[in-house]
Write a structure and sequence with these properties.
This protein is of the alpha+beta class and about 375 residues long. α8 packs antiparallel against α9. The chain has 2 domains: about 110 residues, no CATH class; about 230 residues, Aminoglycoside phosphotransferase (APH), C-terminal lobe (Aminoglycoside 3'-phosphotransferase, Chain: A, domain 2, Alpha-Beta Complex). Helix content is about 45%, strand content about 10%. The longest helix has 20 residues. The radius of gyration is 26 Å and the shape is elongated. The strands form 5 sheets. It has a 3-stranded antiparallel β-sheet with strand order 2-4-5, with helices on one face. A 3-stranded antiparallel β-sheet has the order 8-10-11, covered by helices on one side.
C-alpha cells in the first residue's frame, strides 16, 4: 500500500481555498482507530482506503469532515483512473439522493502531496503533442487499388511486429489481478465483446440474435480457459490498429491512443493489427489474398520468431472475435458489403471452436 504523508499546512490551505475563509485545523484522526490521534506536523501513515475525521474551525464555527480515498486492488480498482472514476462519480451523485451524506468536494493529491480541489470540474481533457505523419491505414487503402506490395510495405509490417515483440517482452509484477481483469473486460467491457454485441441493431438480414448469444457463451468459456495464464501479462498498447499508427519517413512511426490499461494479453495487440490485413483483403479479394495475405503472414511469422510465443496461438481466439465484431459492425462500417460481413462472422464462429489458431487455415475459417 502506498503511504502519502500529508502536512497539516496543506490541509489548512486546501480548506481555506475550498471555503474562501480563514481556517484552523483542530484535530485529525483515523476513523478506524478508537483512540484519537494527536495533531502532528504530518498525517503520518496516510494511506489509501483509510478514512480520516478532520475537525476544523471556519469563521468561529467548528465543522467536521471525512477525507478518504479508494484502496488499490481488484474489482476494477487497480488503476489510478479507476479510483478517480469512483470518486468523481460519488461526488456527482451523493447530493442528488435524499437522505444521503452530502459530498463537499472531490479532490486529488498532487505529486508533492498537496491537495487540489476538482469539485467544480465538468469534464476532463488531455493535451498531447502534435506528431507529423500519415496514418498506416492509408498504406492499406493504396494496396486495395494497386494490388501491389512494395519493399517498404514489408519493412513497415516488420517494424510494427518488432515493436509489439519488444513492448510485450516487459512483464507485470502484479500480473494475476491485472491479467484476470483484462480478460474479464475483454468479455464484458462496454468497448469490448458484449459492448459490441449490444451495439448491433436487431432484425439484421445477415445476422440473428442466436449467433450473438452463442458467441457470448463461447467467449465466456474462453475467459475461463485464459484467465489463469497470468504469467502472460505484458506491457500492451491496447488499441494497436492502422488508424492509431502514424508513419513518417521509412519505418519511423508513432503510436496513438493507448487504451484500456498498461498491462494485458499480447494477443490483444497482435489481433488488433493483423485482423485489418484480413479486413482489407476481404474487401478487395473476398478472401485472404494478394499483398494483404503476405503482410498477415509476415507480421505473424516475424512476431513468433522474435518472441518464441507459440502459446499466443491458443489465446487469440476471443480477441479475434472481438476485433471481428468491430470490423463487421454496421455502426463503424455502415457501407461494408454483406458478403464481407458474413465472412467475418464465419471467421469468428470458426476460430472460437479451435483450440489452436492455425495461420495456414485462415481461408477455411472464413467459410460457412
Amino acid at each position: 500500500m502506498e503511504i502519502s504523508p500529508i502536512r497539516l499546512e496543506d490541509l489548512k490551505r486546501y480548506f481555506a481555498d475550498l471555503f474562501n475563509e480563514q481556517v484552523s485545523i483542530i484535530q485529525v484522526e483515523e476513523m478506524i482507530l478508537k483512540e484519537e490521534k494527536k495533531i502532528e506536523k504530518e498525517l503520518k501513515g496516510f494511506g489509501y482506503g483509510i478514512p480520516y475525521l478532520i475537525k476544523i474551525l471556519i469563521g468561529g464555527r467548528e465543522r467536521k469532515f471525512v477525507l478518504e480515498t479508494v484502496r488499490p486492488g481488484p474489482f476494477g480498482h487497480e488503476h489510478f483512473s479507476d479510483r478517480a472514476q469512483i470518486l468523481l462519480w460519488q461526488h456527482s451523485t451523493f447530493n442528488r439522493l435524499p437522505s444521503h451524506v452530502r459530498s463537499i468536494d472531490v479532490g486529488a493529491f498532487t505529486k508533492d502531496n498537496s491537495l487540489k480541489s476538482l469539485g467544480d470540474c465538468k469534464e476532463f481533457f488531455i493535451v498531447t503533442e502534435f506528431v507529423e505523419g500519415e496514418p498506416y491505414y492509408l498504406d492499406l487503402e493504396r494496396m486495395k487499388v494497386t494490388l501491389r506490395l512494395t519493399q517498404l510495405d514489408i519493412e513497415r509490417c516488420k517494424a510494427l511486429s518488432d515493436y509489439l515483440a519488444k513492448i510485450h517482452s516487459l512483464k507485470s509484477e502484479d500480473a494475476k489481478p491485472l491479467y484476470t481483469r483484462r480478460i474479464r473486460e475483454l468479455i464484458g467491457h462496454g468497448e469490448c465483446i458484449m459492448g459490441l454485441t449490444d451495439s448491433y441493431p436487431s432484425n439484421l438480414e445477415y445476422l440473428d440474435e442466436k449467433f450473438l448469444i452463442g458467441l457470448e457463451k463461447k467467449c465466456v468459456e474462453w475467459r475461463w480457459k485464459i484467465k489463469r495464464k497470468s504469467y502472460r501479462c505484458s506491457q500492451v498498447h491496447g488499441d494497436f490498429h492502422p488508424w492509431n499508427i502514424l508513419f513518417k519517413e521509412g519505418v519511423d512511426f508513432t503510436a496513438l491512443d493507448r487504451s484500456r490499461g498498461e498491462w494485458g494479453e499480447p494477443a490483444d495487440d497482435v489481433t488488433a493489427m493483423t485482423i485489418n490485413y484480413l479486413f482489407f483483403s476481404l474487401q478487395t479479394y473476398g478472401k485472404l489474398d494478394g499483398p494483404f495475405k503476405e503482410l498477415f503472414e509476415v507480421f505473424w511469422k516475424n512476431y513468433l520468431e522474435k518472441t518464441g510465443d507459440d502459446e499466443i496461438l491458443t489465446v487469440v481466439q476471443p480477441f479475434y472475435a472481438w476485433r471481428g465484431l468491430v470490423i463487421a459492425s454496421p455502426i463503424w462500417y455502415p457501407n461494408l458489403p454483406i458478403m464481407v460481413r458474413k465472412k467475418i462472422f464465419s471467421f469468428i464462429r470458426n476460430i472460437l471452436e479451435k483450440n489452436v489458431f492455425d495461420l495456414k487455415e485462415v481461408e477455411m475459417y472464413l467459410s460457412d
